[in-house]
Design brief:
The complex is a heterodimer of chains A (about 250) and B (about 220). Chain A has about 250 residues and is of the alpha/beta class. Chain A has a single domain, classed as Glutaconate Coenzyme A-transferase (3-Layer(aba) Sandwich), CATH 3.40.1080.10. Chain A has 7 helices and 12 strands. The longest helix of chain A has 12 residues. Chain A is globular. In chain A, about 50% of the residues are buried. In chain B, the strands form 2 sheets. Chain B has a 9-stranded mixed sheet. Classes of the chains: A alpha/beta (about 250), B alpha/beta (about 220). Chains A and B meet through α4, α5 and α6 of A and α2 and α3 of B.
Chain lengths: ~250, ~220
């Protein structure tokens, strides 16, 4: 009987993450983001991390005090980020990440979003590199290898393997077969396939093996190693409606 | 908002671009001003909205209190799904983009050059950048439309001879809407196609930083509602 993939707590699931790990954090605009695992890793304290994520912050569907990559940055746990956003998109916006980046305390690799996804897909598919038309002719392609296929120029990009993927899913069975709901899927299955070990925070009660029809599995359990059921709020972190968040923020500032 | 400023409102700008969408087109809207294109009434046209986070066939924004907390568009706004919608992961979403399934992407920009280059990921003097899916979309969508203000906050032209800040893609922009008018980019250069009500041709020329072809007759920008 193999060891259970179900862990009793987020702390237990991240207890052995070593310094210097490369970790992919799933999610897009909060949806599918491993909010609870961010908190557990901040408390665990591993340092020198390379963090792969679409951006460096949370989003508007989460209370502003909820854990994000910013918690790890403030905690001096992050050595480098690999993201499609490493600067604010509006002049009025300030990123915690930018404070550290501008002082040279954190390194960054800026990658177009489709390339970021495909680099992890490639890692999970046993493909070391690929060519893409994205970023050809831009600053990002300067000094790098390009090649012309059928009259069009493409940029060489290498696979991005991960040590760990931290993701959030809707349904899981005890073997680790996962289903995501709506736009929760985003980077999550790709990061899991690119990682040596995948840790999942699961929204619904973890089901018995076989409870998910094989045709309905979005990510097979062979890519999943540890799972934790997210407790109800306030013990666990959950996305909220904008109106609820606004109400809480108003109460906090009152 | 350009609302209160001269010329078209942001919604009118997006309505005008949305009139160009053809029946059956797959349309990807960038964050910021372009998201307003989905408010346009397309009548009998079937338009399929593609969001880079893998939502194919989303509909209008959700009313307050009715948000599905698992569903947002590329701008992180809660949206609805139209009948026939589908969900894919990020690699499939960008696979659709790179393989030419997107008929048009509408993006915001800091600058557009007369040769179709444009810049929207890095402000002058900024360390790092915000690319998101813009480079993949700009390189691969069949058409690239831009919606932006005519001038910067400091009154400098955004329509320029050559981009001064790092480009997102070269030679890809077909059509630009600003609060001052509708501009088409062809191999011959940039042409003023329509002009915003209340704006003169001289005002457009004075706020444009590149050669602009101006036909003898420039009709007003078509607006609805």
């Amino acid at each position: 009987m193999p060891r259970s993939k179900i862990y009793p707590s987020f702390a237990a699931a991240v207890a052995d993450i070593p310094d210097g790990s490369t970790i992919g954090f799933g999610g897009f605009a909060v949806i599918g983001m491993p909010i609870n695992l961010y908190q557990a890793l901040a408390e665990q304290g591993a340092k020198g991390l390379t963090c792969v994520s679409n951006g460096t912050r949370g989003g508007s569907t989460m209370p502003s005090d909820a854990p994000t990559l910013e918690w790890l940055i403030r905690n001096d746990q992050v050595k480098k980020v690999i993201c499609s956003f490493t600067a604010p998109t509006r002049a009025s916006q300030k990123l915690v990440f930018s404070e550290y980046y501008e002082k040279g305390l954190i390194d960054a690799e800026l990658v177009p979003q489709g390339t970021l996804a495909e680099r992890m897909r490639a890692a999970g598919a046993g493909i070391p590199a690929f060519y893409t038309p994205a970023a050809v002719g831009t600053e990002l392609a300067e000094g790098r290898e390009t090649r012309v296929f059928n009259g069009r120029e493409y940029l060489l990009e290498e696979a991005l393997p991960l040590d760990y993927a931290f993701i959030r899913a809707y349904h899981a069975d005890a073997f680790g077969n996962l289903r995501f709901r709506r736009s929760q899927r985003n980077f999550n299955p790709l990061m899991a396939m690119a990682a040596k070990a995948t840790i999942v925070e699961v929204e619904e009660d973890i089901l018995p093996v076989g409870a998910i029809d094989p045709d309905d599995v979005h990510l097979p359990g062979i890519f999943v190693h540890r799972m934790v059921k997210i407790p109800p709020p306030p013990e666990g972190w959950w996305p909220q409606r904008p109106a609820e968040i606004a109400k809480q923020e108003a109460e906090r500032s009152a | 908002m350009s609302d209160g400023a001269k010329g078209l409102t942001r919604q009118q700008m997006c309505d005008r671009l949305a009139m160009e969408f053809q029946d059956g087109w797959v349309v990807n809207l960038g964050i910021g001003i372009p998201t307003l294109c989905s408010n346009f009434d397309f009548g009998d046209k079937q338009i399929i909205f593609h969001a880079e986070n893998g939502v194919i066939g989303y509909g209008p924004l959700t009313g307050a209190g009715r948000e599905d907390l698992h569903l947002v568009n590329a701008g992180g706004q809660h949206v609805t799904l139209n009948p026939g919608a589908a969900i894919v992961h990020h690699a499939d979403s960008f696979g659709m983009i790179r393989s030419g399934r997107i008929d048009v992407t509408v993006l915001g920009a800091y600058e557009v050059a007369e040769n179709g280059d444009f810049a929207n990921w890095k402000m002058a003097g900024q360390k790092g950048g915000g690319i998101g899916g813009a480079m993949d979309l700009a390189a691969c969508a069949k058409h690239v439309f831009v919606a932006m203000e005519q001038v910067t906050r400091n009154g400098r032209p955004r329509l320029v001879e050559r981009c001064a800040i790092p480009v997102t893609a070269k030679g890809v922009v077909d059509l630009v809407i600003t609060n001052y008018g509708l501009f088409e980019i062809t191999p011959e250069g940039m042409t003023l196609r329509e002009i915003a009500p209340g704006v003169s041709v001289d005002e457009v020329k004075a706020t444009t930083g590149c050669n602009l072809r101006i036909p003898r007759e420039v009709p007003p920008v078509r607006v609805r509602g």
